Amino acid sequence: MSEHKPLNIGMIGYGFMGRAHSNAYCKVGNFFKTKHRPVLRAACGRNEEAVQAFADNWGYESTETDWRALIARDDIDAIDICVPNNLHKEIAIAAAEAGKMILCEKPLSMDVAEGEAMCEAVEKAGVTNMVWYNYRRVPAVTLAKNLIDEGRLGRIFHYRANFLQDWTIAEDVPQGGAALWRLDAAAAGSGVTGDLLAHCIDTALWLNGSIHDVTAMTETFVKERMHNLTGKVEPVGIDDACAFLCHFENGSLGLFESTRYARGHKALYTFEVNGEKGSLRWDLHDLHRLEFFDHADESAVRGWRNVHVTDHGGDHPYMDHWWVPGLQIGYEHSFVHQVADFLGGLDRGENAGPTFRDALETQKVCDAVLESAKTKSWCNIS
Ligand code: SOE
User: Fold this and answer.
1) What's the gap in Å between 180 CA and the centre of ligand 1?
2) 3: pLDDT confidence band, cut at 50, 70 and 90?
3) Over pLDDT 70: what percentage of the chain?
């Protein structure tokens, strides 16, 4: 007899992230022995045919075309929000009021005001909540966190992060609609700041603590694009590129850059942390490796170590759940780990995080970055 506790999932949305999360729900039970196990109860999307095809592909038992109907169902425990950012708030608040757990795609919201309302709703309802900042769960990134927490870098001086892409350089790429809502300010809220820098900021806050203030610049290189929903050429309201400097509360300096105009880069997320005793460097294109420089090493052999994060003996986070030492895992596993931690949290009666409240901190930095770029001034994180 199975001792598993079902966690009945209602998935809203069926794009790239809907697939990434569904894959994680399907795989997690094979590799992580949590008591709670996801059951793919229903998928929801406005296009009946498309949502049915998605449900058939991933094994969802049923479909809905109205998210309110999904939330109203008694056989759903958790709502997974995988729709454009402008829909997060309304769905999350309705789900919280219905007593559902919520797993929400990043960024939490369009802005801080929306994020605050979402936090209040989940906290008032007392429902478990999480935001999909998946890069925290890449084993090499979690290892970086462990090394920093052990004090292996000592006092931190610098934090540097980039997230570079090149998919919007062509002027004839339209904005708006299914795959291109990230270019539409009304659906996304912002451009690279909320989409890409939000990842860098979440990781930075996790590894290096709070940010005190920021100064930023943004640019929109292509000023007008055809809008898929209206058929008209319309002004582009998002930031195509953004760079900012910041002071962390621990006294270290931060330097962040993101763009969709770095020809040749598809998803180059890198960070480097420099401390008194050592440094760490990570690169999403080589995500199973962590580079580590330890100044305590004997000087004759001192240098950057390139750690292949695949050890099976428990030293490398999550890896004892996968293959044998030396065999690496990939991008999709970060989502499996996030679900595993969420389920493990439920088993123990804890909220694994990052919670809505944690993600609100990232939202505050994003808002301050956009405000700083607009006013050309330093902005404090409130
Ligand atoms: C944008 O291209 C995107 O898909 C982001 O939306 C994701 O959050 C990021 O992980 C990869 O790039």
Assistant:
1) 12
2) confident
3) 99
- pLDDT-derived band at 2 (thresholds 50, 70, 90) equals low
Coil, helix or strand at residue 370: helix
349: left (phi over 0), alpha (psi -120 to 50) or beta: left
Using pLDDT thresholds of 50, 70 and 90, give the confidence band for residue 179: confident
Position in ligand 1 atom list of the atom nearest CA 106:
8
Residue-averaged pLDDT of the chain: 97
Distances (CA, A) of 270 to 164, 190, 274, 330, 337: 9, 21, 14, 16, 20
| Residues constituting the chain | 382
Which residues, judged by CB distance below 6 Å to any ligand atom, belong to the binding site of ligand 1?
165, 195, 199, 267
Instruction: Set out the domains of the chain in order of their start, with CATH numbers.
Output: 5-134 (3.40.50.720), 136-380 (3.30.360.10)
Name the residue of 17, 193, 196 whose CB sits within 8 Å of the most ligand 1 atoms, as the mutation to test its pocket.
Answer: 196
Q: Look at the alpha carbons of 255, 259, 261, 265 in this order and tell me if their dihedral is positive or negative.
A: positive
What is the distance between the alpha carbons of residues 348 and 38, in angstroms, rounded to a whole number?
16
Rounded Cα–Cα distance for residues 346 and 34 (Å): 9
- Going by CA atoms, what residue is nearest to atom 6 of ligand 1? 195
Pocket test for ligand 1, best of 192, 199, 240 (most atoms within 8 A of CB): 199
* CB contact burial 186-224 (16+ within 10 A = b; e otherwise): bbbbbbbbbbbbbbbbbbbbbbbbebebbbbebeeebee
